[in-house]
Amino acid sequence: MKAAGRRPGTRLRDHLAASDPGLLRLTAGLRTVGAIALTLAVLAPAGADVNHLVAGAMTSMAATFAIRERRRGAQAVTLALGLPVALASVSLGALLSERVVLGDVFSIALIFSAVYGRRFGDRGTTLGLIGFQLYFVSLFVGATPGQLPALWVVLSVGFACSALVRFAVVPVTPAGLMARLRQAFRVRLARLVSAHIALLDAGPDEADKALEDVRERTARLHETALMIQSRLEEGTPDESAARLVQRRVADAEIAAERLGLLLLSARSAQRADTLTLHLPGAPAPEVGRLPGPEEAAVLLRRDLRALRALVLRTGTAGAGVAQMRNRLLGYRDEENLPAASAPVRDVFRGIGEAARAVMGLRIALDGPQDESDDSPATARSREELDAEDAAIDAEETEDAEETKGLQRPTTRAAVQVSVGSTLAIVGGELLSTDRWYWAVLTCWIVFINTASTGEILVKGYRRLLGTVFGVVAGILLAGLVGGHTLLAFALVLVLIFAMFYTAPLSYTLMSFFVTAMLGLLYTLLHTYSWEVLVLRVEETALGAVCGVAAAALVLPVRTDRRTNDLLVTVLERLSDVTDAAVAQLSGGPADELLDKARELDQALGDLRSATKPLTHPVTPLRARRTTARYVVALLETCAYHARSLAATAELLPTHPSIAADPRLRGAAGRTVRNIRTIAARVADDEVTDPVDTGPSIASLLADDDASRYGRITGRVLRHLERLDEAVVGLARPLDVPVKAPEP
Predict the structure, then answer these.
(1) CB 549 within 8 A of CB 541
(2) 738 three-class SS
C-alpha cells in the first residue's frame, strides 16, 4: 500500500499531525479565539461599549493562554483562583491610575511577585501571569474607579467564557492528546522512511539535500518522542503502560536512526560517521551506486516503501499487510537476507529491526494484533516483544536537589525583572506618560522562558524586529478597516489565532501579529495614530534594552556559564546511561535505563536551547558558533549510541539469543572515565587530567571464547567504538588534553 493511494482526508490529517504534533498549536489558537469570540458574543448584545469589549476580549485571552496544568481538575481550580486575582489586579490598577508614584511602586511589586511565583509550580506561574496581564489591561483601557463594577462583570464573563470553551467547546483530555501525539510520531516516522528512500535514489548532486532532509526529519521524530515522554504519566492508564509506550517509542526512534546510518554507509565508499547525521550543514560523503547486484537495490526500495506502509497502517491488518510484515521481519534471520554486498545486507538487517520496532509500537499503541497470518519469524518477534512487555516494572525516581536563596532561578529572575522594569518605567514615562507600560511589558516578556543574558538579548532583538514589521502591518490594517467595528474585531481574532499558532515556531512572527493586532485595537478605541505606533516601537526598544541591561548587570547568568553548567549535566547523564547500560550488558543487576536515557534527552534538549544565542545567524562570533554546533552534534551522536546501548541492555532478561558479556565492563571503562574527565574539565578550568586513548575497544575483547557470549556483542561493540571515538572528538573543541596512546 503506497502513501499516495490514501484518502485526501487521511493525508490532510497526517499532514497536520506531522506539522503540529498533538495539534497543540491548533488547539491553543482555537481555544483562545473561541473564548474571545464567545465573550464578545455575550457582551455585545448586552450593550457593552468598545472599552468593555476590548477588556473582555483581553481577559478571556489571558485566562485561556495562562493555564499551564495538564489535568482538567487542576485547570478548573486554577481558573477559579484566577478570577479573584484578576479582579484585585484590575481594581488596584484603576485605583492607582492617578497616583503615579504609588502606582509605579505597586507595578514593580506585582512584577516581582508574578515572577517569584514561578517557584510554586504551574499554578503559581499562571496566577502571577494573570495578575500581571490584567493589571496592564486596566491601564490599556484607561479604567477608573467609577468603572470598576462594570469591569468586574466583564472580567467574570471573560473567565466564564474561557472555562466554557476550554472544558466544553474545545476539550483536550490527556488520553486524547497522547493519542494525537502517537499519531504524529507515526507520521513523522513514515516521513523519515520517505527521506531514506530519497537518500537511496539521490544522485551525487542531490546527496547533500537528501541527507539534510534525513537530518531534519530525524530531529523532528526525536522532538515528538520527547513530547510523548513528557506527557506519558497523564496520558496513559498506569505507570506500566507509560513505560511500555516509552520503550516502544524509543525502540522505533533508535531503529529508524540506525537504518538511516546504515543506508548512508552503504551508499558511500567510506564508513559513514554517525556525526554526519547530527551536524547541520555537514556535507554528505561521496556517494555512488549501491555495491552488488542491481536486483538488491530494487528489493531495498520495495522494502523501504513496505516499511513506510507498515508505519502508517492502523486497524486490522489484511493479508497483504501481513505478507509485507512477515517478509520484512524475516530479514532478522541471516538465511532470509538477499544476495548482496555486506553493507547492503546490513541495510536489510536494519529494515528487519525497524519492522520489529514498528510491530512493537503497534501493539503498545493499538493493543493485540491478528496473529493468524504470522510467519515463524514474525511469531518469534512477537514472543520477544511479549517477554519484554512482561518484564517492564515501574520504579520510583528521586527528586533533584533544589537551590536556595538568590541562586534559585525564580528569585534571581524576579530581582532582575524588577530592576529592569524600574528602568523601563522611568524611561517609558519620559517617552509617554500614557503608554509607558509597553516598555514594562517588553521587559517582562523577554525574561519569560529565558535563563541567560544571551537568550534575553536574542529574544529582545526578535521582539523588536517583529514589532517594527507589525507597525507597518498595523498601519495598513487600520486604513483598511476604518470605522468598521465588526470587521476590526474579526481581523483581531484572525491575528490572535495566528499569534498563538506561530508562537512555538517563531517569536518574531508572534511579535508581528501582536503589534498588528494592537493597531486594530487602538483603531477600535479611537486612539489610533501614526505617532502611537511609532511610540510602540520606541517603547519596545527601550524595554528590550532595559531587560538586557538588568540581565547583564544584576545577578547575571552569562551564556557561557549557563551552557557550561548544562554541558556538565549532559555529560553526567551520558556517563550514567553508559555506565549503567554496560554494567547490565556485563551481567550486572537491572537498572532504570529508560529513565536515565530520558533524563539524558531532556538535558541535551536544554543545552540545545541554551546554545541558540551562540548559533544565532546574527552572532558576530563565527568561530564560537561553529564550535557550539559541532559540540552539540557530537553530544547528539553520543546520546544516540548511549540510547542504543540502553535499549540493547534492556533486551537481556527476555531474549535467549542475547547473553551478558562480562568483558564489556573493563573494555568500556575508558570511555566512561573520559566522559567524567571532560565533565570535570568543563566544570573547573584547573582540572588538567587528559582524555585517554588506546587500542580499539574491539581489540580489548578479542579472544577465542567470543562466540559463547552471543552475536549481540558485535552490535554492542560497534556502539561502544563510535561512542569512544565521539567522546575523544569532544575533548578537542572543549580544550581537554588528549593523551597519546602508548606505542
Answers:
(1) no
(2) strand
